Structures are given as C-alpha cells and as structure tokens.
TrEMBL record, chain A:
One GO CC annotation: plasma membrane
Protein name: Binding-protein-dependent transport system inner membrane component
Any Pfam family: BPD_transp_1
Transmembrane segments: 20-41, 53-73, 79-100, 148-167, 179-199
Annotated membrane topology: Multi-pass membrane protein
Keywords, ordered alphabetically: Membrane, Transmembrane, Transmembrane helix, Transport
Localization per Swiss-Prot or TrEMBL: Cell membrane; Membrane
UniProt similarity note: Belongs to the binding-protein-dependent transport system permease family.
PROSITE patterns: ABC_TM1
Gene Ontology process terms (BP): glycine betaine transport; transmembrane transport
Residue intervals of the ABC transmembrane type-1 domain: 15-197
Stored InterPro entries: ABC_transp_perm/SBD (IPR051204), MetI-like (IPR000515), MetI-like_sf (IPR035906)
Source taxonomy: Bacteria, Bacillati, Actinomycetota, Actinomycetes, Propionibacteriales
Source organism of this protein record: Propionibacterium ruminifibrarum
Automatic annotation (TrEMBL), chain B:
Database matches in Gene3D superfamilies: P-loop containing nucleotide triphosphate hydrolases
Regions crossing the membrane: none
Native organism: Propionibacterium ruminifibrarum
Protein name listed in UniProt: ABC-type quaternary amine transporter
Residue stretches making up the ABC transporter domain: 2-237
Amino acid sequence: MTWLSLNWPHVIDLARAHLLLSVPAILLSVVIAVPVGRLAYRHPRVGGPLLGAASLLYAIPALPLLIVIPALLGTPLRSATTMIVALTVYGVALLVRTAADAFTAVDDHTRGAAVAVGHSPLAVFWQVDLPLAFPVLLSGVRVVTVSTIGLVTIGALIGVSSLGTLLTDGFQRSIPAEVTTGVIATVLLALLLDGLLLLTGRVAAPWTRAARPARGTAVTA
Amino acid sequence: MIEFEQVTKTYPGGSVAVEGFSLVVPSHRTVALVGSSGSGKTTLLRMVNRMVEPTSGRVLIDDQDVQDRDPVELRRSIGYVLQAGGLLPHRTVLDNVATVLRLNHVTRQAARARAAEMLERVGLDPALGSRYPGQLSGGQQQRVGVARALVPDPNILLMDEPFGAVDPIVRRELQDELARLQTELGKTIVFVTHDVDEAFRLGDEVVVLRERAAIAQQGTPSDILAAPADEFVHDFVGAGRAERVLHTQTIGGRLVAVDGTGLPVGVLES
C-alpha cells in the first residue's frame, strides 16, 4: 500500500492511457465486426469462410502481430496506433461470429412481418435487425471488452504505456507491490467497463426484461 | 378492386404453388380464400403486396399493375395482418400500432395519438399501449395486429390466417369484432384461412381452393353450402357433417331446428 500511496498519480495516468488504447479498439471492433457479421448472415456462402478466416486472426501471436502491423501500415512500431490496430484485429476475431449469430437469432417471422408492413431494407436493418440482435451483440461486446483490457498490457513489452507498464517495470525492478497494483487495476478497469455495458443493456433493451406479464396485471382479451 | 389475371407462381426447383389463377375482388367486399395447406392461398395473398412476385400473370389494384408500383410504398398503402400479430417485440404496443405512420414520416406525437385512438377502436384498453407485445395475451396481440394494419386507413386489408393462433372462444370474439369493424369501415379485404366456418362467417364471397390454387368453387357462403360444386367441396365445407344437416321438429307447438346428431340448435320463427 505504501507503494500505491506514493505512486497513485502515476497509476491514474497509466489507467487513462490504458483506456485511450482499449476504448477506440473496442469501438472499432464493433464498427467492423457488426457489418461483417451481418454480411455473413445474409450471404452464408461467403459468410462461412469469412467467419472462419476472421476467427483464425485470434490465433496470431501478439508480438509478431505488433511487428507485422507497422510493416504493413507504415505506423511507428512503438505507437498507440499500432497497438489499437492489433487490439482491433483480436476484437474483430472474437466478435464476428457472435455478430453473425445475433442476426441469425432474429425471428424470420418478425422480420418478414416488418417487410410486409412496409419497412425498406435499410429500415429493416436499423429498426428491426439491429435492435433485436442487440442483446446478443452486447454479450459479445462484453467479452471483447474484457479481453481487450487484458491484452492492452502486452503493449508494455514494445514500450506503449498502459497499466501493463506497472507489470514490466515491477518485474524488472523487483517491486512486487507495483506488479500487484498493475494486476488489480487492470481487473478493476475490466470490471468497471463490463458493468457499464451491462447497465447500457438494461437501459437500451427494456423489452428483454418485460417478456412475461407482471403478476396480477394481466388483462384478458 | 383487386384483380388476379392468370397468375402462376413456380418456385426454383419446379414446384408449382399457383397455376393460372384469376379472380376479381370487388371494392369494399370481403373475399375469403379457403383451402388446406399447400393450396397456395397465402402465396396469392402475398402477391398483392409484392411479398411474392408471380412467375407469370398480373395482379392489378384499381386497374394498375402492382409490378409498376414501388414495393415499399405499395406495402405501406395496404394493411397486412398475419398470424400471431407479427409485432415487433422491442417496440411498445403503441409504437407498434404507430409503425406505418412513422414510416410515412408522420410526427411521433401525431402517430401515437392516432395509434391510441385505434387501440380503443379494436377494443383494447389504451393503457396497454405502454406494454411490450410479449406482455399481452394472444388475443390482445392479434387485436394490436389489426390496429396496426388499420391505422394508416388503407383501402385494402390482407389477412393471412390472422386468428389461427388463438383459442376458439377468443377467435370467435375476434371474428365478431372484425365483422363489426368491417360494417363501419368497408375495406376491401382478402382473408386467407383454412377454417371453413371462419370463411363463411366473414366472407361476402368465399373461394374454395384445391392444390395449386385451382378454384374448386366460388360464391356466397349460402351458395356453396346449398350446392357444393363437387365431392371435394362437399367434403371440404363439411356439407355432410352432422351439425350442418338440420331438420325441424314440432315441440310444444313451435318449430325447433335439430342437427344430425339430434341436438336442438334453435327455434324457427315464422
């Protein structure tokens, strides 16, 4: 605790850096994976191989990926951009299949009815498919979020500051308290974001909790 | 007026759902298409709002080929009611009813006001408006489905086995309600069902279909019941069924109608 009491401004700074790396990566993962998942659902023949390939991305080891990205994109090796791209690759790999499943799970009867009463294809996507896929999508995003928060720490190995810096620095200088702080702070950050997402789901999808009639208030036709 | 002109629907793989079907549905009348599953009746219905495109032939609404209309605009101009309501589970009842108005860019407030009015009209407590469809009974959902179809005040109402998913008592209530609404509104209704009694109760005209939407008989319910065209129609409408064969007995000086099982079903008035 002494270590933390002396270094907490540093920890706060690193936590902020941690968020600045993970939040854009999570958002980018969603923005990329949702359309790809939707494409895979609409065109299963293209979708099957696409989902397979996307999932395989997760098998790429982190350190080689952090070297390949600058080589391919011309971004500086030890930069936030490189890190965010790498995290997005993993996020997309985790999320595409869930996204495809989320759209598959939308009831065809409901979708058909929406078309029949006059929703344009665009309106079907925004007003029917997306909101109904939302609960499943959100569960996928929660997994990506927790995973991304954990993965950000690897950046410390190539010199991109985050809470992971506490781990590398603590190991090198043999300060167990610093390492422990790094682990706990990372876990807390993951829990915090996960909690926020859970809350978002509650607020944004109220129908999922209203599926059954409240006791004593049912009115017969 | 809706006209089917020699429409045929062949699905890829060669299965024929509808073959050379022609029919005129006069304005402000209810025509019930009745047939067993596989008779192509739903396919016919869905050709009217271009959910299904005919392989050949034409469907005309007021002498205009639906093929010349934009499908989305066409669907918004036609009321569509389907089994189990087909409601959007993530929208409140009120917003479900207001859907088509909102798609037609009516302001939210105006759309909701008209939706609330329509809920009352179909016999629902407007307080149900803030519920989600999942919180309603089957019969209530079905009424919401009817309200949603009626709220933009379309000339045409397409009903695809709308009361198939509710129990017989509620079904009867809904049929009576629809009949009442129709006397007030006078829509042009195409009603698809496999239930002959429902077709007879609601149809000004009934079209009995066999496979591939071949018309076995077309006429008023009494025409069909009095003179079934053939064995198929006779069996399908149950003309030989005990409860359809009535005779009279004089009991206590009054004429009592008795069905084929010996059950008295009513008293004849002179």
